[in-house]
Every structure is written in C-alpha cells, then in structure tokens.
From TrEMBL:
Its cofactor is Ca(2+). The lineage of its organism: Eukaryota, Metazoa, Chordata, Craniata, Vertebrata. It catalyses: L-glutaminyl-[protein] + L-lysyl-[protein] = [protein]-L-lysyl-N(6)-5-L-glutamyl-[protein] + NH4(+). The active site is at C271, H329, D352. This is protein-glutamine gamma-glutamyltransferase. Ca(2+) binds at N392, D394, E442, E447. Residues 263-355 form the Transglutaminase-like domain. Pfam families: Transglut_C (PF00927), Transglut_core (PF01841), Transglut_N (PF00868). Its EC number is 2.3.2.13. GO terms for molecular function: metal ion binding; protein-glutamine gamma-glutamyltransferase activity.
Length: 690
C-alpha cells in the first residue's frame, strides 16, 4: 500500500539531553552514533505484525557501502549493527529505541518503517535525523575519556587563539559558534562540495565513518584552493574586495557568507582563520578539536628540513626562495584513533587547513600523528615531514649579493624553530604550553638524534647539498655577538625604543660597521614597507659591551604598519677581518586597551546594558570608528555600531543592550577599529543566571 505519513515524535528534548546535542537549535533530531535514541510513531503492535526499519544516507544507499541498514525488532540493543528494541506500545502508537553502530557513517539519514500484518504490508517514512561522532562513547574512534575535555573540545563555542611573537605572546578570543543557526547544515554541505565527493560520491559517503578521512577532506575544503572551499587566503598585505583577515571575530559570519554567496570562497583568511573555521566544523560534527599556535614556525617548501633566509649587505630581508619562518602559525589538533598506524599513534592528530603546500595534488594537510612527529617517524601518513619541519627545521641565514649572485652563510641555528607551542587550557581562559608533546628538549642529545633519524628517513643524510655551508664557513666563529633589547612598552601609538647590544668576544679591539633597517611585516615576516634605516661604525675594546639606543618614532611607522602590527629590525654587522654577524628581532606591538563593563546582572531573556570604553591614546583625531560585538547565547549574529570621531586623548563610551538566551558563563567578544588602530580586540566573561 502507499506510504502514509505517520506523525513521528522524535522526543527531541530527551534524546538531545542523552546525546549531548541540546546546544543545537533544530527541529530535526540530532544524535550521536553507537547510542540509543527513542522514536514514537503511529502503528499497532500486534503479535502477527512485523516491523522492518530502514535507515539510509547518501546519494545511492547500499548495504555494501554501509549507507543502508534494514533491521527488525530485537530483544537487546547492539552496538555492532543497527538495532531496534520495542519500548512500549499503547493504542495506535509504538515507541522504539533505535541504536546505530559505533562506526556508522555520519550525516543526514532517512528513516522509514515497513509493517507487515498477515499478507498486507505498508511502508511509511518517519522523517530524517542527523547522526554525529560520539566522543562520549568508548567504542567510538573519537572517544575521549575525560568528560571535561569533551566539554571543552566538542561543546565549547568560545576559544582563545595565541599570536604575536615568541618573546611577546598575545591572544584574542574567537567565537566558534558550532551550534548556532544552520551551522550544522553548512557543515554537511561542505562535505558534499569536496573534490572527493564530486569525483565519487558513493565512495566518499561510505568513508564518512572515519575521522581521519573526514579530517583530511575538511582540511582541504576550509581553504578555497582546488575546490572553491570556504575561505580564500591572502598574504599580500592588501585586502581590497574582502575583509582584512585580522578583522574576523568568529566563524559564524564566514560560514554564513559562504552559504549566502552561493558557496563562493569568503575573502580573506590567514592561518588562524582557517584553523578556527576547521575547529568549528569538526566540533560541530563531534570530533574533539582545538587550535594550536606554533611560534617561529618553519615553512619548509623544499622538504630538506631546513629553511634558508637571505639578507643583503644593508640588512634588508630578501624574499628569495620559497622557504620562510613565520612569527607564528596556527593549525589544529583533533583527537581520534589511528588504526592504520597502531595504538601508540592514536590521540592528538595534526590537521592544517592553511594552504601552504600540496599533498596528494591538493592543498590539504594531515592527519599527522603528534606522537609520530615527536619521534621523527616522518614516513608515517599523512604529511609528517612538513609538520616535523614546522617545529624542528634548522635555520640558515645567508648574505646574498644580487650583483654577483654569491651567497655567504652568516650563521645557522638549530634551536630557533618551534617554540612556546600553545593552546587554550581546558575549562579556563589560560595558555597551556604543549611544546614537549611535539619534541624533546632543544639542545638535548635525544632531540638531535630524532632530527638525524628524520633526515635519514627522508633520504637527506647522504645527499650532496649544494647550499650546505662549507666546513670553513662552519668553523669560522664570529668575533662579536649582538642582540636587540626592548626598552619601554611595545604599543601602537607610542615610539618604539630598542637597544642594540654589541659584545666583543675577542681579546683584541674590533672595528664594526653596522647597517640597520626596520620594516613593517606581516606575521609571516614578509616585508611590506621600509620604516627606518641607519648605519654606525664602532670600535669595541677587548671584551667590551656597548649599547646603542634606537628610537623609531610613531609618526615614522604609523602609516606603514600592517594590521599584524609587526616590525622586523635587522642589523648586519660587518666586522673588519672577520665574518658578518646578523642581529634581528621581530617585534609585535600591542593595541591600546579597550574596556567592557556589564552594567547590572545578566539574566536569561532579560535586557542588560553593556558599556564599552575606549580612550584615544594619541595626539591626533581618530576617525571611521566601528565597534563589532558578538557572543553565543548573548546576542544573535553580529552587532555593528558606528562611533563618532575622537579627538586627541578623548574618551568614548558606547552602550548597547544584550538579551542572554541561556544561563552559564558566556563570552562577549568586542572588536574596535578606526583609521589609526586596526582591530583592537577583547572579550568579557558574562555570568548569566536563570
């Protein structure tokens, strides 16, 4: 007989509570795999009546690809296969408990029931539901034993991303918003737009039970390269036709824009944007995920575990070769088992959605087992050599003469790369250092042994290396040492004060000619504008230390600073009769402060006033002031407020109202921008009570 649409009761509230999906605001059932859920529908339970349930997903459901399951009523629940157990039946309605296997394909399913009574049978559609990964269930490949970690890495919608430089770590809040609006539907459509799906939808969907497969696919889909993915990267310093990557405060706006535009890549992103969006997507699907910041991060383009940097005689950093060292780089770690590698490689896996190098012909990276990276097992899938280099590469600094094309090694350093690797603490807004999980202690024999092991596995140890320093270059020791010290505060709007400290290491006098430059850079250390240059000649007595104060005035750098607020200061020291010495420092400036106050008590569904105060710290007027506010469960979408220009030292106070929708500790994110200061970010914890 024809299908009759029974009125299905999905028990949305109870099922969501049991399955940790209450934060989704949806009229559709959202449950996790390997766990029972209850559904009630019209039907009569008579002894001679048989129910057969059909759950199906994907474009061509089949049993062979595990995208179609048919199952009748059984007496007990199974976690190995789909099963249904009768819970109760009353006049005209039946309640059934349905369980999916631990390794079920995730995604949107159709559920229908065939009932046969005597010789008549009918099929009725019960509707659709969405099935997600289940980190709370011990049989799942994403199982995370700690409940507090599940709360943080799956359910928490607020995050902190670390940035700046290794000497001066800064941080900003991010609104992941994985449960807001139709984020889940957008995540499902991301999967259906990947190259993998387009080439072979049936195989792609059948692999969606595997977090390592999905992690890799999604790392390629979050960037726009190859597949019209979500975010278009831009590291030029010019962002016309889109938003400056530093101006985003959450993933929601990005995912919404992608959908609204008919799935055209959103302009523009840099590493933390890719990592934050990937965090949102993976947490939404139920894979525990966090962002990781690596300071002094190597981008080793040629796979020789070495990055080469070039400078001219004046101390200008030259863009030669594809290698680079970034002040910081942000990627992801996701938690799942590696049955392809073995138990010791399970746990945190590195995924990187920033398009840096191709892997398997497209811009994707990972999952690389963090344990494999630490042990130098660079032959293990996926992309271990690239990640190993990001935290371990040796650094070579060269002097390059463009007239002759001659390169001279200035010095090499093996302890420069991969420092203060950082992530947000579980349940607290603090920084946790995870460097020791990526490598053994810098300078230890173990660390060098692992580096040699990795070189050997990559077949690098016997190869003649044309750029390698000659023994003479290595043996020649510098006569002087130098460093830049910061004197005073590092704040946009104030003069930058540094001290160049030079020390004569020898017992005879040395004459040194120093060429100094300061450039504004991106966080990738790409030089954008020259800000300042100077040169001095100095004689150092035996073992003498001399200090040279350097002042770079605000009006010298103000027009040239990038939104990353970073300046690279370089001194190349030509020592008479000795080898050159390179002294450099990457300085990240802080924005002035902005203050948020919640005026009164924040209660669910009640208006509360918030005041944001900013004082113009410079002696000129600031214009084009805009305040952007967002925060899950505090307001919907993004509030944008225009603020009148502020004269020198003038204080502005802006008030707006919030209506919190849920109790608990919530984070309000604020971003203030004007013509002189880009993206002053802060956040405030708001305790909302019932």
């Amino acid at each position: 007989t024809a299908a009759t649409q029974p009125s299905t009761d999905w028990h949305l509230k109870e099922n969501a509570r049991e399955h940790h999906t209450s934060k989704f605001s949806s009229d559709e059932l959202i449950v996790r795999r390997g766990q029972a859920f209850t559904v009630t529908f019209n039907g009569t339970e008579e002894p001679e009546q048989n129910f057969i349930f059909v759950a199906e997903t994907g474009p061509k459901p089949s049993k062979a690809t595990k995208t179609l399951a048919t199952f009748g009523l059984s007496s007990t629940v199974s976690t190995e296969s789909w099963s249904a157990v009768l819970q109760s039946s009353s006049s005209g309605s039946v309640s059934i408990s349905i369980s999916s296997p631990h390794n079920a394909v995730i995604g949107r399913y159709k559920l229908s029931v065939q009932s046969t009574s005597g010789d008549s049978s009918s099929t009725a559609s019960l509707g659709t539901f969405v099935l997600l990964f289940n980190p709370w269930s011990s049989g799942d490949s994403v199982f995370m034993p700690s409940k507090a970690e599940c709360e943080e890495y799956v359910l928490e919608e607020f995050g902190i991303i670390f940035a700046g430089t290794k000497n001066h770590i800064s941080s900003f809040g991010w609104n992941f918003g994985q449960f807001q609006g139709d984020t889940l539907n957008i995540c499902l459509s991301i999967m259906d737009r990947s190259l993998y799906y387009r080439q072979d939808p049936v195989t792609d969907v059948s692999h969606r039970n595997d977090p390592k497969y999905l992690g890799r696919v999604l790392s390629s889909m979050v960037n726009a390269n190859d597949d019209q993915g979500v975010v278009l990267g831009n590291w030029s310093g010019k962002y016309e036709g889109g938003k400056n990557p530093t101006s985003w405060t959450g993933s929601g706006e990005i995912l919404q824009n992608w959908k609204k535009s008919g799935f055209k890549p959103v302009r523009y992103g840099q590493c933390w944007v890719f990592a934050a969006v990937l965090t949102t997507v993976l947490r939404c699907l139920g894979i525990p995920t966090r962002t990781i910041t690596n300071f002094s991060s190597a981008h080793d383009a040629d796979g020789n575990l070495r990055v080469d940097e070039f400078y001219d005689a004046s101390g200008n950093h030259l863009e030669r070769g594809a290698d680079s060292v970034w002040n910081f780089h942000v990627w992801n770690e996701s938690w799942f088992t590696r049955n392809d590698l073995g138990p010791s490689y399970s746990g945190w896996q590195i995924l990187d959605a920033t398009p840096q190098e191709e892997s398997g012909g497209i811009y994707q990276c990972g999952p690389a087992s963090r344990h494999a990276v630490k042990e130098g097992e660079v032959d293990l899938e996926y992309d271990c050599p690239f990640v190993f280099a990001e935290v371990n590469a040796d650094c070579m600094y060269w002097n390059y003469d463009s007239a002759t094309g001659k390169k001279t090694l200035i010095f090499s350093k093996s302890t420069e790369i991969g420092e203060s690797i950082s992530t947000k603490a579980v349940g607290r807004d603090d920084r946790v250092d995870v460097t020791k999980d990526y490598k053994y202690e810098e300078g230890s024999t173990k660390e060098r042994d692992i580096f040699k092991k990795a070189r050997k596995k990559l077949g690098l140890e016997d190869k003649f290396d044309p750029t390698a320093p000659t023994p003479r270059e290595v043996e020649q020791k510098p006569d002087i040492s130098g460093k830049f010290k910061v004197a005073g505060s590092l704040e946009v709007g104030k003069d930058l004060n540094l001290v160049l400290v030079l020390v004569n290491l020898q017992s005879e006098s040395k004459t040194v000619h120093v060429n100094m430059t300061a450039w504004s850079t991106l966080y990738t250390r790409k030089p954008v504008h020259e800000i300042w240059k100077d040169s001095i000649s100095v004689t150092l007595s035996p073992k003498e230390e001399k200090r040279f104060p350097i002042k770079i005035h605000y009006n010298e750098y103000q027009q040239r600073l990038t939104a990353d607020k970073t300046i690279q200061v370089t001194a190349i020291c030509h020592v008479e009769g000795g080898i050159q010495v390179l002294v450099q420092r990457n300085v990240a400036l802080d924005n002035p402060a902005i203050d948020i106050q919640v005026l009164g008590e924040a209660k669910v569904n009640k208006e509360v006033d918030v005041e944001v105060v900013f004082t113009n710290p410079i002696d000129t007027e600031v214009m084009d002031c805009v305040l952007q506010v967002e925060g899950c469960d505090l307001l919907t979408g993004i509030l944008e407020l225009r603020i009148p220009p502020l004269k020198a030292s003038e204080k502005s106070s802006t008030k707006f109202k919030l209506i919190p929708s849920e109790a608990g500790l919530k984070h309000l994110l604020v971003n203030f921008t004007c013509d002189k200061f880009a993206d002053i970010k802060t956040f405030k914890v708001v305790n909302v009570i019932d």
